[in-house]
Design the sequence.
């Protein structure tokens, strides 16, 4: 079926540590994946994306990994900061430029 | 000023009433989307539009309709609101690039709708 899901609804990480947020998808035809960050009271904001012909992409303090064999996507945040506290969503283009979202993971930063 | 503006930001209505949520954008994007957000369910796609003549159903279009009045405007209507349509609604635009099949969604600040 068409679905994008998260392994964990909540993740708590010590400030300064690295965070890893996981996402599973089921549509083998999906060719484009995106991570969004949603802070309280705001709309989601783009973090990083990756096309299906890549397995890794790096941004500033963030890295997205794509494993098409097991249909798994992850977002790694280096040296997690208090400002990283938010809900993170993975999203995918399931075809016809139809972008669907997973259920989200809430990231808590511990002092 | 926000690039993607939603009105109203908050609305309380009664079952059976017709409700319209409006979205306007100054980004010049052709593609616009309406999503619904419920706690624990993430964002679900209601409708999306590639231009004024191209409207597509999303994951949960039943009970909703849309109108693309112009490139910059995309409105969502609930013809007869029911309590389970109580949710936070987001409009988004996309700078989709057909050559690369990639694009970023730019979201409005959301419209919170409560149906009593």
Sequence:
């Amino acid at each position: 079926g068409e679905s994008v899901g998260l392994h964990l609804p909540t993740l708590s990480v010590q400030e300064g540590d690295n965070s890893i947020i996981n996402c599973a998808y089921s549509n083998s035809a999906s060719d484009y994946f995106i991570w969004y960050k949603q802070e309280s009271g705001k709309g989601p904001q783009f973090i990083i994306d990756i096309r299906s012909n890549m397995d890794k992409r790096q941004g500033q303090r963030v890295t997205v990994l794509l494993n098409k064999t097991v249909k798994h996507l992850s977002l790694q945040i280096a040296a997690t900061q208090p400002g990283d506290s938010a809900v993170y969503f993975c999203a995918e283009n399931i075809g016809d430029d139809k972008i669907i979202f997973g259920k989200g993971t809430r990231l808590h930063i511990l002092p | 000023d926000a690039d993607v503006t939603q009105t109203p930001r908050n609305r309380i209505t009664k079952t059976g009433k017709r409700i319209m949520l409006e979205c306007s954008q100054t980004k010049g994007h052709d593609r616009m989307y309406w999503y619904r957000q419920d706690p624990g369910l993430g964002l679900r796609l209601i409708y999306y539009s590639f231009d004024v003549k191209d409207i597509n159903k999303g994951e949960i279009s039943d009970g909703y309709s849309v109108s693309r009045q112009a490139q910059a405007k995309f409105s969502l209507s609930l013809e007869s609101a029911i309590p389970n349509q109580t949710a936070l609604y987001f409009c988004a635009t996309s700078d989709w690039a057909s050559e690369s099949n990639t694009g970023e969604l730019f979201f409005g600040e959301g419209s919170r709708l409560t149906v009593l």
